[in-house]
Specification:
With 392 residues, this protein is an alpha/beta fold. Helices cover 50% and strands 14% of the residues. Strands 1, 3, 4, 5, 6, 7, 8 and 9 form an 8-stranded mixed β-sheet that branches. A two-stranded parallel sheet has the order 2-10. Helix 3 runs antiparallel to helix 4 and helix 4 packs antiparallel against helix 7.
Length: 392
């Protein structure tokens, strides 16, 4: 990294450095292929599995690494610098682990965390539903209906990152007969191999192609043992992990583009002159503006993660919303500036610039969208009631 990390403990730094090594030595060289094929980064996950990173956010009591939010945010940023699709999907997996830690019973933790740590299982989070948006109140259409010994769960989820690579889907819906999420929102762990799970391989996106975010249809019976939390309980826990991770991922993409941009400016001559582009005042300004925004984003990310670690829910909500909005915009802007600096060559696929730009396009619209993040932050600053995600 061109800019130094904020102060970290030895344990935090060790995790971040391990993530940086994986991204630099393994992930970066594969990213273009996953993008071109729109294929899941299987080899990258084999490396994460071998390094014990699938248990990055699993508590030590269950055999995991128990990375705190600060270590996690910077490690995820490093992973995304190497491969954006790996970073984004890994955030889904790790965030669900955090939800299980907050909601699951002891037997469930032993079983599911054991599957992650000892068997290398992956967990996908599927919340988005067709015709629904997180910009206003989200209405859950997935229905949980009581049957003997468990629940019949039926619905459709889209944008399921990890697609058919996941071993479990963390599915949230509403109990039949209830009218609000506060009264009836409930979740289940559904195995990918369960009868009634259908993966529709429809993912063909502009960017983040390696996330393989297919649509999932399910019409399954889930035993009571795999129901996570009580009705309405999920709305009372800290759900900021997703947005914190998105901030890290899109900042990481911007940092990768910026590192390329600086190296390009330092080594590319301005013909017919022999001096490199970095000697031109306009290039110096371009590099300075981009670097300043990314450095500010890194500090915002760090502060949001630190507040999350301290457990201050309201302060975390403000900082995470600001960090997600700022980092997504700064990352996208950095990829654009890198393209501009490279000129016409930048749009060719022999350089990673156009791929980074396409991946970064998803940042501002990923829920919570930047518009929603800024609305939430504005309400908090004005002393008004606010919630990043609101359910009907």
């Amino acid at each position: 990294m061109i800019f130094p990390l904020p102060p970290l403990t030895d344990a935090q730094r060790a995790l971040v450095e391990r993530a940086e090594a994986l991204a630099r030595e393994r992930f970066a060289a594969r990213a273009a292929r996953y993008d071109a094929e729109s294929s899941f980064p299987v080899e990258n996950y084999a490396d994460l599995r071998e390094a014990g990173f699938l248990g990055l956010t699993v508590p030590r009591a269950w055999g995991g690494l128990e990375a705190d939010p600060v270590a996690y945010a910077h490690a995820l940023c490093a992973i995304a610098r190497g491969c954006a699709a790996t970073g984004l999907t890994f955030n889904m997996h790790c965030t669900v682990v955090g939800l299980l830690d907050a909601l699951a019973g002891e037997e469930q933790k032993a079983r599911f965390f054991g599957a992650v740590v000892r068997e290398g299982r992956l967990i996908a989070s599927i919340t988005s539903e067709p015709e629904q948006s997180f910009r206003d109140k989200f209405v859950l259409n997935t229905v949980f209906r009581r049957v003997p010994g468990g629940w019949h769960v039926a619905g459709v989820k889209q944008f399921c990152s990890l697609g058919d690579a996941a071993d479990y889907y963390f599915v949230t819906g509403i109990v039949e007969g209830t009218t609000t999420a506060k009264e009836g929102a409930i979740s289940a762990m559904v195995p990918r191999t369960a009868q009634g799970v259908k993966v529709e391989a429809v993912w063909n996106a502009t960017g983040m192609r390696g996330t393989v975010s297919h649509t999932i249809r399910y019409d399954v019976v889930v035993p009571d043992a795999d129901i996570v939390g009580r009705p309405g309980e999920i709305l009372g826990i800290d759900l900021s992990g997703y947005a914190l991770g998105y901030a890290a991922v899109y900042l990481g993409i911007g940092e990768a583009a910026f590192e390329f941009m600086v190296e390009y400016a330092k080594t590319r001559p301005q013909k017919p002159s022999t001096t490199p582009l970095s000697h031109h005042p306009l290039v110096q300004r371009q590099v300075a503006e981009t670097g300043t925004a990314l450095r500010a984003g890194r500090l915002l990310l760090h502060e949001a993660a630190r507040l999350k670690q301290l457990g201050d829910r309201e302060a975390t909500m403000l900082a995470v919303n600001q960090a997600k909005a700022f980092c997504a915009e700064a990352g996208l802007r950095a990829t654009e500036q890198a393209l501009r600096l490279a000129g016409g060559r930048g749009i060719l696929k022999d350089l990673p610039l156009e791929r980074w730009h396409r991946d970064a396009l998803a940042g501002p619209v990923m829920p919570p969208s930047n518009d929603r993040c800024l609305e939430t932050a504005g309400k908090l600053i004005c002393g008004l009631r606010a919630a990043t995600l609101e359910f009907q």
